[in-house]
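Figure S7 source data.
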Amino acid sequence: MAGGSDGADPRRAAMNPAEWLVRAAVRRPGAPALMQGTRVLTDYAAFARRAGAVGAGLAARGVTPGERVALYLGNHPAYLEALYGIWFAGAAAVPINAKLHPREAAWILRDAGAVACFVAPDTPAGLPDLPLIDVAGPDYATLAAGAPLPGPVAMVPGALAWLFYTSGTTGRPKGVMITAANLVAMSLCYLADVDTVEPGDAALYAAPMSHGAGLYALVHVLRGARHVVPESGGFDPAEILALAPTLGQVSMFAAPTMVRRLVDRASATGTMGAGATGEGIKTVVYGGGPMYRADIEEAVAVMGPRFVQIYGQGESPMTITALARELVADRSHPRWAARLASVGVAQSAVRVRVADAEGRTLPPDETGEILVSGATVMAGYWQNPAATAETIRDGWLWTGDLGSMDRDGFLTLQDRSKDVIISGGTNIYPREVEEALLTHADVHEVAVVGAPHPEWGEEVVAFVSSTPGAALDPAALDRHCLDRIARFKRPRRYVAAQGLPKNNYGKVLKTELRRRLAEGER
Ligand code: AMP
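Tokens for the predicted adenosine monophosphate complex:
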């Protein structure tokens, strides 16, 4: 792994992502670029100039190509200026979720060896002693108004561009090294497999920009589209439904839990308000966690064919498989239902297969671990060769996800391997039980986990958040399961939960549920 350098062999240099910004600014200088709500803050000429100035300022402060500069702030209109500024200087960005505790952020800053960090005004104390640049402060204003670099610094092959830290549900987070070439491949896959992007489109950042939503900025920069941070700075379903008709051609990334809230809000608004049926929304790309069939069917029924699914992970960002909108919406296909429950087919830049513990490819429809190789797969874990060797073997990324692939190449995910329940020596996939329970009208949200059991090893427990007005009725849910899944898979215990614990990206924290059970919650 090496950083960028002006002296790089130009025939082999990696594409600096900031090149796309420079080109967009040349082609469409006056086009709206960065927006807050409906307000245009900068056009493309100003976006590129300001990012180039941030890059020059970082270089003047001693940041050299290949060094790491962090972003510890929530969604903010200056986020992309700072990110592209880092790339202009040939440095690598370290995105840190704004909701992390300062102690966690401090750990990441130290591990990454960050030399500077962009922050928001409300950043709490407790970060290590390194230059903090408040994007709303006078220092940043001066930085962004300075003289820009003549162009982005050339990056050497393999240059690190995005050092993303895993959420670390098992132990310390690991830094995932995503190269500039990975980001280019990821962006081209968006155009090949996910959706078109037109100059008039608006990328709406409702999900954290420190994660996949932020990475989708690249393809929108490439096409010279608008980048919109909502006034709330985050995900507010009512705000989005109101904003979309005004903006028009809105694309956004949303975790399944966000889609659910958007659809709940849209159906509550009914036909009364503008945008209630998704007017102005071109595409919602969903992924990052399981989307249950009942939920996506309802989403399409309420808001129309605006949904595309992706499956990815930090180690192959946003890019393992995709389920195109036609496949989500086309009920006429004989295998529509099975395809809807899948995560689609391999994206263009990667190969995907399902393997046994020895890495041998399994026959169609058999469940094993999902392996990925190709242009979007990370270079490895930052300063952690042991973890890299464990995760990338013989050129294949072992995702830790279990699934099966059908004859047509459609991949269906089961669960993370660590979430599988083994009861009486038999594997039970929680997702299947969750799917069954979610078809019951009283069940709003559900998470199924294994609890230690003296005789069976583990027993199946369901945490259920009931729909408003309904009470948890274990006997009714048991009958419902008996009608749908094998007896041995059905939950032996139900726990009423008011909402499920989720991490900063909206993923249900099964580790937390297992901990509650271990502590005796019944
Ligand atoms: P992260 O590295 O934080 O992006 O988390 C990636 C993990 O989220 C994957 O390994 C999967 O377990 C899960 N995931 C991502 N996309 C999907 C999807 N479309 N359906 C189900 N799970 C998903």
